[in-house]
Amino acid sequence: xxxxxxxxxxxxxxxxxxxxxxxxxxxxxxxxxxxxxxxxxxxxxxxxxxxxxxxxxxxxxxxxxxxxxxxxxxxxxxxxxxxxxxxxxxxxxxxxxxxxxxxxxxxxxxxxxxxxxxxxxxxxxxxxxxxxxxxxxxxxxxxxxxxxxxxxxxxxxxxxxxxxxxxxxxxxxxxxxxxxxxxxxxxxxxxxxxxxxxxxxxxxxxxxxxxxxxxxxxxxxxxxxxxxxxxxxxxxxxxxxxxxxxxxxxxxxxxxxxxxxxxxxxxxxxxxxxxxxxxxxxxxxxxxxxxxxxxxxxxxxxxxxxxxxxxxxxxxxxxxxxxxxxxxxxxxxxxxxxxxxxxxxxxxxxxxxxxxxxxxxxxxxxxxxxxxxxxxxxxxxxxxxxxxxx
Length: 390
Known about the structure:
This protein is an alpha/beta fold. The chain is built from eleven helices and six strands.
Protein backbone atom coordinates (compact mmCIF):
# COMPACT_ATOMS: atom_id res chain seq x y z
CA UNK A 1 0.00 0.00 0.00
CA UNK A 2 1.52 3.29 -1.07
CA UNK A 3 0.97 6.61 0.61
CA UNK A 4 -1.24 7.78 -2.29
CA UNK A 5 -3.43 4.72 -1.86
CA UNK A 6 -3.72 5.25 1.88
CA UNK A 7 -5.22 8.73 1.46
CA UNK A 8 -8.17 7.45 -0.62
CA UNK A 9 -11.34 7.01 1.43
CA UNK A 10 -13.63 3.99 0.98
CA UNK A 11 -16.39 6.09 -0.61
CA UNK A 12 -13.92 7.72 -3.03
CA UNK A 13 -12.55 4.31 -3.90
CA UNK A 14 -16.01 2.90 -4.58
CA UNK A 15 -16.96 5.89 -6.73
CA UNK A 16 -13.75 5.64 -8.76
CA UNK A 17 -14.09 1.90 -9.37
CA UNK A 18 -17.73 2.18 -10.45
CA UNK A 19 -17.04 5.15 -12.74
CA UNK A 20 -14.07 3.47 -14.44
CA UNK A 21 -15.96 0.18 -14.76
CA UNK A 22 -18.89 1.99 -16.39
CA UNK A 23 -16.51 3.58 -18.91
CA UNK A 24 -15.04 0.15 -19.57
CA UNK A 25 -18.49 -1.36 -20.15
CA UNK A 26 -19.44 1.31 -22.67
CA UNK A 27 -16.15 1.05 -24.54
CA UNK A 28 -16.06 -2.74 -24.64
CA UNK A 29 -19.70 -3.12 -25.69
CA UNK A 30 -19.15 -0.66 -28.55
CA UNK A 31 -15.97 -2.43 -29.62
CA UNK A 32 -17.63 -5.85 -29.37
CA UNK A 33 -20.53 -4.74 -31.59
CA UNK A 34 -18.29 -3.20 -34.25
CA UNK A 35 -15.89 -6.14 -34.27
CA UNK A 36 -18.71 -8.68 -34.39
CA UNK A 37 -20.17 -6.96 -37.44
CA UNK A 38 -16.74 -6.80 -39.09
CA UNK A 39 -16.02 -10.43 -38.23
CA UNK A 40 -19.31 -11.70 -39.63
CA UNK A 41 -19.17 -9.62 -42.82
CA UNK A 42 -15.52 -10.49 -43.53
CA UNK A 43 -15.74 -14.17 -42.43
CA UNK A 44 -12.86 -13.43 -40.04
CA UNK A 45 -12.70 -15.82 -37.10
CA UNK A 46 -9.90 -13.78 -35.48
CA UNK A 47 -11.97 -10.58 -35.51
CA UNK A 48 -15.02 -12.44 -34.21
CA UNK A 49 -13.02 -13.92 -31.34
CA UNK A 50 -11.63 -10.48 -30.58
CA UNK A 51 -15.24 -9.28 -30.30
CA UNK A 52 -16.01 -12.11 -27.88
CA UNK A 53 -13.00 -11.04 -25.82
CA UNK A 54 -14.35 -7.46 -25.63
CA UNK A 55 -17.76 -8.75 -24.60
CA UNK A 56 -16.23 -10.79 -21.78
CA UNK A 57 -14.40 -7.64 -20.64
CA UNK A 58 -17.72 -5.79 -20.52
CA UNK A 59 -19.29 -8.58 -18.44
CA UNK A 60 -16.26 -8.47 -16.14
CA UNK A 61 -16.78 -4.73 -15.60
CA UNK A 62 -20.43 -5.32 -14.71
CA UNK A 63 -19.41 -7.93 -12.14
CA UNK A 64 -16.79 -5.49 -10.80
CA UNK A 65 -19.48 -2.87 -10.17
CA UNK A 66 -21.77 -5.39 -8.45
CA UNK A 67 -18.89 -6.73 -6.37
CA UNK A 68 -17.77 -3.25 -5.34
CA UNK A 69 -21.28 -2.31 -4.20
CA UNK A 70 -21.68 -5.52 -2.24
CA UNK A 71 -18.22 -5.33 -0.69
CA UNK A 72 -19.01 -1.87 0.69
CA UNK A 73 -22.08 -3.03 2.61
CA UNK A 74 -21.87 -2.11 6.27
CA UNK A 75 -20.82 -4.68 8.83
CA UNK A 76 -23.63 -6.71 10.40
CA UNK A 77 -24.02 -9.32 13.11
CA UNK A 78 -23.01 -12.20 10.83
CA UNK A 79 -20.16 -10.25 9.22
CA UNK A 80 -18.68 -7.98 11.91
CA UNK A 81 -15.65 -7.16 9.75
CA UNK A 82 -17.71 -6.07 6.76
CA UNK A 83 -18.07 -7.59 3.30
CA UNK A 84 -14.80 -6.47 1.68
CA UNK A 85 -13.71 -9.98 0.70
CA UNK A 86 -16.61 -10.14 -1.77
CA UNK A 87 -14.33 -8.21 -4.12
CA UNK A 88 -11.97 -11.20 -4.23
CA UNK A 89 -14.89 -13.51 -4.99
CA UNK A 90 -16.03 -11.32 -7.89
CA UNK A 91 -12.47 -11.30 -9.21
CA UNK A 92 -12.59 -15.11 -9.16
CA UNK A 93 -15.87 -15.05 -11.12
CA UNK A 94 -14.34 -12.66 -13.66
CA UNK A 95 -11.37 -14.99 -14.07
CA UNK A 96 -13.73 -17.92 -14.68
CA UNK A 97 -15.63 -15.97 -17.36
CA UNK A 98 -12.41 -14.97 -19.10
CA UNK A 99 -11.19 -18.58 -18.98
CA UNK A 100 -14.46 -19.81 -20.50
CA UNK A 101 -14.14 -17.25 -23.30
CA UNK A 102 -10.55 -18.33 -23.91
CA UNK A 103 -11.35 -22.05 -24.04
CA UNK A 104 -14.34 -21.45 -26.34
CA UNK A 105 -12.18 -19.29 -28.61
CA UNK A 106 -9.48 -21.95 -28.70
CA UNK A 107 -11.95 -24.65 -29.77
CA UNK A 108 -13.43 -22.35 -32.42
CA UNK A 109 -9.95 -21.52 -33.76
CA UNK A 110 -8.96 -25.18 -34.01
CA UNK A 111 -12.14 -25.82 -35.96
CA UNK A 112 -11.14 -22.93 -38.27
CA UNK A 113 -7.77 -24.56 -38.91
CA UNK A 114 -9.44 -27.89 -39.72
CA UNK A 115 -12.14 -26.29 -41.89
CA UNK A 116 -10.78 -22.91 -43.08
CA UNK A 117 -12.99 -20.07 -44.35
CA UNK A 118 -11.57 -17.42 -46.69
CA UNK A 119 -11.91 -13.93 -45.16
CA UNK A 120 -12.96 -10.84 -47.09
CA UNK A 121 -11.79 -7.55 -45.58
CA UNK A 122 -13.00 -4.08 -46.50
CA UNK A 123 -11.12 -0.81 -45.87
CA UNK A 124 -13.76 0.12 -43.26
CA UNK A 125 -13.16 -3.08 -41.31
CA UNK A 126 -9.44 -2.36 -41.13
CA UNK A 127 -10.12 1.18 -39.89
CA UNK A 128 -12.43 -0.18 -37.17
CA UNK A 129 -9.79 -2.64 -35.98
CA UNK A 130 -7.12 0.10 -35.94
CA UNK A 131 -9.39 2.42 -33.93
CA UNK A 132 -10.08 -0.45 -31.51
CA UNK A 133 -6.35 -0.80 -30.90
CA UNK A 134 -6.03 2.90 -30.10
CA UNK A 135 -9.08 2.87 -27.79
CA UNK A 136 -7.75 -0.12 -25.87
CA UNK A 137 -4.33 1.49 -25.37
CA UNK A 138 -5.85 4.69 -23.98
CA UNK A 139 -8.38 2.78 -21.85
CA UNK A 140 -5.75 0.38 -20.52
CA UNK A 141 -3.36 3.07 -19.31
CA UNK A 142 -6.19 5.06 -17.74
CA UNK A 143 -7.82 2.13 -15.93
CA UNK A 144 -4.51 0.82 -14.61
CA UNK A 145 -3.44 4.23 -13.31
CA UNK A 146 -6.72 4.64 -11.43
CA UNK A 147 -6.41 1.07 -10.11
CA UNK A 148 -2.97 1.87 -8.67
CA UNK A 149 -4.30 5.08 -7.14
CA UNK A 150 -7.27 3.46 -5.36
CA UNK A 151 -5.53 0.13 -4.60
CA UNK A 152 -7.89 -2.01 -6.70
CA UNK A 153 -6.40 -5.26 -7.97
CA UNK A 154 -9.46 -5.72 -10.17
CA UNK A 155 -8.95 -2.39 -11.95
CA UNK A 156 -5.21 -2.96 -12.28
CA UNK A 157 -5.93 -6.35 -13.86
CA UNK A 158 -8.58 -4.81 -16.15
CA UNK A 159 -6.15 -2.11 -17.28
CA UNK A 160 -3.42 -4.62 -17.99
CA UNK A 161 -5.93 -6.81 -19.81
CA UNK A 162 -6.98 -3.86 -21.99
CA UNK A 163 -3.37 -3.19 -22.96
CA UNK A 164 -2.95 -6.85 -23.75
CA UNK A 165 -6.14 -6.73 -25.83
CA UNK A 166 -4.58 -3.92 -27.85
CA UNK A 167 -1.68 -6.24 -28.65
CA UNK A 168 -4.05 -9.02 -29.68
CA UNK A 169 -6.07 -6.64 -31.88
CA UNK A 170 -2.82 -5.52 -33.47
CA UNK A 171 -2.08 -9.15 -34.34
CA UNK A 172 -5.54 -9.45 -35.89
CA UNK A 173 -4.91 -6.32 -37.96
CA UNK A 174 -1.53 -7.68 -39.02
CA UNK A 175 -3.12 -10.98 -40.11
CA UNK A 176 -5.69 -9.06 -42.13
CA UNK A 177 -3.01 -7.03 -43.91
CA UNK A 178 -0.99 -10.16 -44.62
CA UNK A 179 -4.05 -11.75 -46.22
CA UNK A 180 -4.83 -8.67 -48.33
CA UNK A 181 -1.31 -8.49 -49.76
CA UNK A 182 -0.37 -12.18 -49.94
CA UNK A 183 -3.70 -14.06 -49.84
CA UNK A 184 -2.25 -16.19 -47.04
CA UNK A 185 -4.87 -16.68 -44.33
CA UNK A 186 -3.51 -16.76 -40.77
CA UNK A 187 -6.92 -16.09 -39.20
CA UNK A 188 -7.41 -19.33 -37.33
CA UNK A 189 -3.78 -19.48 -36.20
CA UNK A 190 -3.99 -15.95 -34.80
CA UNK A 191 -7.20 -17.06 -33.08
CA UNK A 192 -5.33 -19.90 -31.39
CA UNK A 193 -2.66 -17.49 -30.16
CA UNK A 194 -5.30 -15.07 -28.85
CA UNK A 195 -7.10 -17.91 -27.09
CA UNK A 196 -3.94 -19.16 -25.38
CA UNK A 197 -3.11 -15.69 -24.06
CA UNK A 198 -6.69 -15.18 -22.85
CA UNK A 199 -6.54 -18.49 -20.94
CA UNK A 200 -3.14 -17.56 -19.50
CA UNK A 201 -4.46 -14.18 -18.31
CA UNK A 202 -7.47 -15.83 -16.66
CA UNK A 203 -5.25 -18.29 -14.80
CA UNK A 204 -3.03 -15.49 -13.48
CA UNK A 205 -6.08 -13.49 -12.37
CA UNK A 206 -7.55 -16.57 -10.69
CA UNK A 207 -4.30 -17.30 -8.86
CA UNK A 208 -4.19 -13.75 -7.50
CA UNK A 209 -7.74 -13.82 -6.14
CA UNK A 210 -7.34 -17.28 -4.62
CA UNK A 211 -4.14 -16.17 -2.84
CA UNK A 212 -6.02 -13.25 -1.28
CA UNK A 213 -8.87 -15.52 -0.17
CA UNK A 214 -6.47 -18.03 1.38
CA UNK A 215 -4.52 -15.27 3.15
CA UNK A 216 -1.17 -13.73 2.29
CA UNK A 217 1.79 -12.19 4.07
CA UNK A 218 1.18 -8.48 4.83
CA UNK A 219 2.51 -6.10 2.22
CA UNK A 220 6.08 -5.10 3.07
CA UNK A 221 5.20 -1.40 2.83
CA UNK A 222 2.35 -1.90 5.29
CA UNK A 223 4.56 -3.76 7.77
CA UNK A 224 7.25 -1.10 7.49
CA UNK A 225 4.72 1.68 8.07
CA UNK A 226 3.60 0.08 11.35
CA UNK A 227 7.22 -0.53 12.33
CA UNK A 228 8.12 3.13 11.72
CA UNK A 229 5.16 4.35 13.78
CA UNK A 230 6.06 2.12 16.73
CA UNK A 231 9.73 3.05 16.43
CA UNK A 232 8.88 6.70 17.05
CA UNK A 233 7.01 5.91 20.26
CA UNK A 234 9.03 6.70 23.43
CA UNK A 235 7.83 3.64 25.38
CA UNK A 236 7.61 0.86 22.77
CA UNK A 237 10.59 -1.15 21.55
CA UNK A 238 10.18 -3.18 18.38
CA UNK A 239 7.32 -4.84 16.53
CA UNK A 240 6.98 -8.63 16.88
CA UNK A 241 4.43 -11.27 15.85
CA UNK A 242 2.77 -8.83 13.46
CA UNK A 243 -0.39 -10.32 12.00
CA UNK A 244 -2.57 -8.43 9.52
CA UNK A 245 -5.92 -9.92 8.49
CA UNK A 246 -7.25 -8.69 5.16
CA UNK A 247 -11.02 -8.10 5.00
CA UNK A 248 -10.89 -6.38 1.61
CA UNK A 249 -8.35 -4.37 -0.42
CA UNK A 250 -8.46 -1.45 2.04
CA UNK A 251 -9.69 -3.07 5.28
CA UNK A 252 -7.24 -4.60 7.71
CA UNK A 253 -7.41 -5.83 11.31
CA UNK A 254 -4.12 -6.53 13.01
CA UNK A 255 -2.21 -7.24 16.17
CA UNK A 256 1.41 -7.30 17.27
CA UNK A 257 3.68 -7.49 20.31
CA UNK A 258 6.10 -4.85 21.49
CA UNK A 259 8.57 -4.70 24.36
CA UNK A 260 8.54 -2.31 27.30
CA UNK A 261 10.94 -1.87 30.16
CA UNK A 262 10.07 -3.92 33.23
CA UNK A 263 9.79 -0.67 35.18
CA UNK A 264 6.88 0.57 33.04
CA UNK A 265 3.60 0.92 34.95
CA UNK A 266 0.25 -0.50 33.85
CA UNK A 267 -1.07 3.03 33.31
CA UNK A 268 1.87 3.85 31.05
CA UNK A 269 1.34 0.64 29.07
CA UNK A 270 -2.36 1.35 28.68
CA UNK A 271 -1.64 4.87 27.45
CA UNK A 272 1.00 3.62 25.04
CA UNK A 273 -1.18 0.94 23.41
CA UNK A 274 -4.04 3.41 22.92
CA UNK A 275 -1.61 5.94 21.49
CA UNK A 276 -0.14 3.44 19.01
CA UNK A 277 -3.53 2.11 17.89
CA UNK A 278 -4.80 5.63 17.30
CA UNK A 279 -1.69 6.71 15.40
CA UNK A 280 -1.74 3.68 13.11
CA UNK A 281 -5.45 4.19 12.42
CA UNK A 282 -4.88 7.88 11.69
CA UNK A 283 -1.86 7.43 9.42
CA UNK A 284 -3.70 4.82 7.35
CA UNK A 285 -6.93 6.85 7.06
CA UNK A 286 -8.85 4.28 9.07
CA UNK A 287 -7.88 1.31 6.92
CA UNK A 288 -5.92 -0.52 9.65
CA UNK A 289 -7.53 -1.30 12.99
CA UNK A 290 -5.15 -2.68 15.60
CA UNK A 291 -7.25 -5.09 17.64
CA UNK A 292 -4.59 -5.92 20.22
CA UNK A 293 -1.05 -5.04 21.25
CA UNK A 294 0.66 -7.68 23.34
CA UNK A 295 3.40 -6.72 25.79
CA UNK A 296 6.79 -8.30 26.45
CA UNK A 297 8.56 -7.07 29.59
CA UNK A 298 12.29 -6.53 29.17
CA UNK A 299 14.47 -7.20 32.23
CA UNK A 300 16.57 -4.13 33.00
CA UNK A 301 17.06 -4.16 36.77
CA UNK A 302 19.26 -7.27 36.99
CA UNK A 303 22.55 -7.13 35.08
CA UNK A 304 22.84 -10.92 35.23
CA UNK A 305 19.64 -11.28 33.21
CA UNK A 306 20.70 -8.54 30.77
CA UNK A 307 23.90 -10.48 30.10
CA UNK A 308 21.97 -13.75 29.88
CA UNK A 309 19.65 -12.25 27.28
CA UNK A 310 22.58 -11.19 25.09
CA UNK A 311 24.28 -14.58 25.30
CA UNK A 312 21.09 -16.60 24.67
CA UNK A 313 20.12 -14.39 21.73
CA UNK A 314 23.51 -14.90 20.12
CA UNK A 315 23.25 -18.67 20.65
CA UNK A 316 19.83 -18.84 18.99
CA UNK A 317 20.69 -16.57 16.05
CA UNK A 318 23.75 -18.70 15.32
CA UNK A 319 21.42 -21.49 14.16
CA UNK A 320 20.71 -21.45 10.43
CA UNK A 321 17.11 -20.53 9.71
CA UNK A 322 16.58 -18.41 12.84
CA UNK A 323 15.47 -14.93 11.78
CA UNK A 324 14.64 -13.35 15.11
CA UNK A 325 14.69 -13.80 18.87
CA UNK A 326 12.32 -11.75 21.01
CA UNK A 327 10.18 -11.75 24.14
CA UNK A 328 13.06 -12.84 26.37
CA UNK A 329 12.20 -13.06 30.04
CA UNK A 330 14.08 -14.70 32.92
CA UNK A 331 13.44 -15.28 36.60
CA UNK A 332 16.63 -16.47 38.30
CA UNK A 333 14.97 -17.02 41.67
CA UNK A 334 12.36 -19.37 40.17
CA UNK A 335 14.85 -20.78 37.66
CA UNK A 336 12.77 -19.98 34.59
CA UNK A 337 13.68 -18.58 31.16
CA UNK A 338 11.48 -18.08 28.07
CA UNK A 339 11.76 -16.46 24.65
CA UNK A 340 10.32 -16.71 21.12
CA UNK A 341 12.14 -17.56 17.91
CA UNK A 342 11.09 -16.77 14.36
CA UNK A 343 12.13 -19.54 11.97
CA UNK A 344 12.36 -19.03 8.22
CA UNK A 345 9.96 -21.10 6.11
CA UNK A 346 11.59 -24.19 4.64
CA UNK A 347 13.45 -25.12 7.81
CA UNK A 348 12.52 -27.75 10.39
CA UNK A 349 11.38 -25.35 13.10
CA UNK A 350 10.70 -28.01 15.72
CA UNK A 351 14.17 -29.49 15.34
CA UNK A 352 15.82 -26.05 15.50
CA UNK A 353 13.89 -25.17 18.66
CA UNK A 354 14.88 -28.53 20.18
CA UNK A 355 18.55 -27.83 19.41
CA UNK A 356 18.35 -24.30 20.83
CA UNK A 357 16.77 -25.52 24.07
CA UNK A 358 19.43 -28.21 24.41
CA UNK A 359 22.23 -25.68 23.89
CA UNK A 360 20.79 -23.07 26.27
CA UNK A 361 20.11 -25.64 28.99
CA UNK A 362 23.72 -26.81 28.69
CA UNK A 363 24.90 -23.23 29.21
CA UNK A 364 22.41 -22.58 32.04
CA UNK A 365 21.79 -25.97 33.70
CA UNK A 366 19.87 -24.41 36.60
CA UNK A 367 17.23 -22.84 34.33
CA UNK A 368 14.07 -24.36 32.92
CA UNK A 369 14.00 -23.15 29.32
CA UNK A 370 10.85 -22.56 27.27
CA UNK A 371 11.11 -21.57 23.60
CA UNK A 372 8.08 -20.72 21.47
CA UNK A 373 8.27 -21.31 17.72
CA UNK A 374 6.87 -18.35 15.77
CA UNK A 375 6.01 -18.15 12.08
CA UNK A 376 7.70 -15.66 9.77
CA UNK A 377 4.46 -13.74 9.12
CA UNK A 378 5.96 -10.38 8.13
CA UNK A 379 9.12 -8.80 6.78
CA UNK A 380 10.06 -7.11 10.07
CA UNK A 381 12.69 -9.63 11.17
CA UNK A 382 15.09 -8.04 8.67
CA UNK A 383 15.45 -5.05 11.00
CA UNK A 384 18.64 -5.55 13.01
CA UNK A 385 17.33 -3.96 16.17
CA UNK A 386 14.28 -6.21 16.09
CA UNK A 387 16.23 -9.44 15.84
CA UNK A 388 16.87 -9.24 19.56
CA UNK A 389 20.39 -7.82 19.26
CA UNK A 390 19.86 -4.51 21.06
